[in-house]
């Protein structure tokens, strides 16, 4: 009887192993469709949040996490005339492009996160800063650049709106000529953001929608997406403020959000920015692997 029990246990473990392997193979086969053009949604992470801003190691870590691509940051800004970027020359850009190709990853966007701490509506020289980002994106074949209007909070500082509109109107024609979209993130609700985008009046300036903005202000994410509409959203930051992983977040129903985006016929990059577990917020691989796996399980069925 003892030998039989041991044999049954070995059989059970063997079968469980085969089943697990089968699930992993099936998941990998499904996710591989992203690069075959069969997936509507791709999942990326942010090199800045991986603690590897403009570092080649961000690509291998992105691969290990299981994401399809990475958003590369343009570097710090401070009081410089432009971003502290390592991507200004072909010699410095090429290793990034080569590493992405080697690992079958994409650079989904370039981010100007320096404007989280600088006022786009007030800082002098912003035209050069954004143009440098556009030039880098063009040279690297990247179609979206991210411009957060964090300090230029048009809810708290509505007096800055004319300056923001004028500056975006000035740079928009250049972005249009280059075939690049400037994705802005604001604290406005969707109705007000639609008005802002209509006032700017360029297809090259769109919303880089952030779930966290809606959640932090008690708004329904799906309703906000529907108000903005398919043509106004270039990319999505698919995360909330830090606290818990996405699958444990009571404020975000990703399955409902997917249904909304499906009905809108939207497709594109879902970029995971935060949603780190506060129990170990600095454990990059653990947090982003967990969130990436969950987002893929919902959006890449």
Instruction: Name the assembly state.
Output: single chain
Strand content: 5-15%
How would a crystallographer describe the biggest sheet? 8 strands, parallel, barrel
End-to-end span in angstroms? Answer: 44 Å
Spatial extent as radius of gyration: 21 Å
- Strand tally is 8
Figure out the total of helices. Answer: 10
| Structural domain count | 2
> Numbering strands along the chain, what is their spatial order in the largest sheet?
1-2-3-4-5-6-7-8
Specify the structural class: alpha/beta
Top-tier CATH class of the largest domain: Alpha Beta
SSE string, helices as H and strands as E = HEHEHEHEHEHEHHEHEH
> What's the CATH H-level superfamily name of the largest domain?
Divalent-metal-dependent TIM barrel enzymes
Mean of the pLDDT scores?
A: 89
Write up what this structure looks like.
This protein has 301 residues and is an alpha/beta fold. α4 packs parallel to α5 and α8 runs parallel beside α9. The protein is globular. The protein starts with a helix and ends with a helix. The N terminus is likely disordered.
Short synopsis of the structure:
The chain is 46% helix and 14% strand.
């Amino acid at each position: 009887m003892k030998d039989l029990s041991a044999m049954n246990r070995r059989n059970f473990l063997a079968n469980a192993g085969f089943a697990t392997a089968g699930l992993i193979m099936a998941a990998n086969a499904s996710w591989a469709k992203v690069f075959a053009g069969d997936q509507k949604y791709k999942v990326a992470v942010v090199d800045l949040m991986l603690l590897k801003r403009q570092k080649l190691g961000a690509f291998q870590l992105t691969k290990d996490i299981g994401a399809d691509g990475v958003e590369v940051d343009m570097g710090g800004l401070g009081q410089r005339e432009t971003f502290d970027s390592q991507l200004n020359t072909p010699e410095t850009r090429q290793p990034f492009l080569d590493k992405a190709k080697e690992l079958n990853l994409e650079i989904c966007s370039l981010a100007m996160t320096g404007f989280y701490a600088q006022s786009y509506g007030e800082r002098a020289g912003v035209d050069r800063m954004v143009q440098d980002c556009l030039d880098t994106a063009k040279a690297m074949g990247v179609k979206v650049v991210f411009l957060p209007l964090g300090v230029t909070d048009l809810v708290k500082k509505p007096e800055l709106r004319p300056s923001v509109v004028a500056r975006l109107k000035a740079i928009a024609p250049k972005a249009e000529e280059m075939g690049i979209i400037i994705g802005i993130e604001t604290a406005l609700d969707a109705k007000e953001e639609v008005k802002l985008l209509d006032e700017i009046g360029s297809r090259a300036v769109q919303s880089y929608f952030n779930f966290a903005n809606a959640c932090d202000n008690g708004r329904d994410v799906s309703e906000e997406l529907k108000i903005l509409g398919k043509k106004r959203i270039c990319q999505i930051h698919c995360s909330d403020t830090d606290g818990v992983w996405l699958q444990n977040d009571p404020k975000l129903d990703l399955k409902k959000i997917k249904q909304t985006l499906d009905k809108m016929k939207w497709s594109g990059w879902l970029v995971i920015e935060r949603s780190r577990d506060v129990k170990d917020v600095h454990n990059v691989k653990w947090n982003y692997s967990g969130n990436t796996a969950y987002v893929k399980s919902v959006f890449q069925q």
